[in-house]
Amino acid sequence: MFYRDERLALFIDGANLYAAGRALGFDIDYKLLRQEFMRRGKLLRAFYYTALLENEEYSPIRPLVDWLHYNGFSMVTKPAREYTDSHGRRKVKGNMDIELTVDALEIAAHVDHIVLFSGDGDFRPLIEALQRKGVRVSVVSTIRSQPPMISDDLRRQADNFIELDELKDVIGRPPREARDTEHGYHGASTENETT
Q1: Which residues form the domain of 169?
Q2: Out of 13, 103, 122, 188, which residue is the most buried by the measure of CB atoms under 10 Å away?
Q3: pLDDT at position 60 over 80
Q4: Whole-prediction pTM value?
Q5: Within a domain: residue 115?
Q6: Residue 2 lies in a domain
Q7: Looking at the domain assignment, is residue 53 inside a domain?
């Protein structure tokens, strides 16, 4: 489904990809992910979208954001909002859908193929708009988790669905907790849960 001379752009919904990987029992190795898609075509850009809790002294995702920024990813971040829901649970809100959509539509004239790492059904109209502009769209997510992490509408709209579980051996590594336990400590997760 990929052509070597195709100009590619990756659009990674950080929270969504993190959750899908966790549901499948692995973390994403972003260096390997970038290398994999450089092999599949001419990778022009790899965008990564995430919201950051700015009010904390240390954000567990900050090292990942810094590493990605220095290793060929275009970082798009914004402050997350923290609130307490009706059950008294602490929640974080940091939706990046608009930013991702605007960037994808802007780059559409310069690429042949966009790979969207998200299962969020809200992106179906974006895929439709990109296809009208002549851009092929692949979606990376999973149907193998319980419940599936990709909306059926998104999967149907995409030109190609890539099952994240099938990329596990290529771009995956053991979850951070498993690695930390092996080394005798417990670390924080590398991605906030955002809605």
Answers
A1: 7-82+89-182
A2: 13
A3: no
A4: 0.85
A5: yes
A6: no
A7: yes
Task: Give Cβ neighbours of residue 141 (< 8 Å, ≥ 6 apart).
Answer: 16, 20, 117, 118, 119, 149, 150, 154, 155, 161, 163, 164
Task: Let me know if residue 188 belongs to a domain.
Answer: no
**pLDDT value at 150 more than 70:** yes
**Does the structure show a pLDDT above 50 at 186?**
no
Residue 108 sits in a domain of what CATH number?
3.40.50.1010
Q: How confident is the model at residue 190 (pLDDT cuts 50, 70, 90)?
A: very low
**Domain total for the chain?**
1
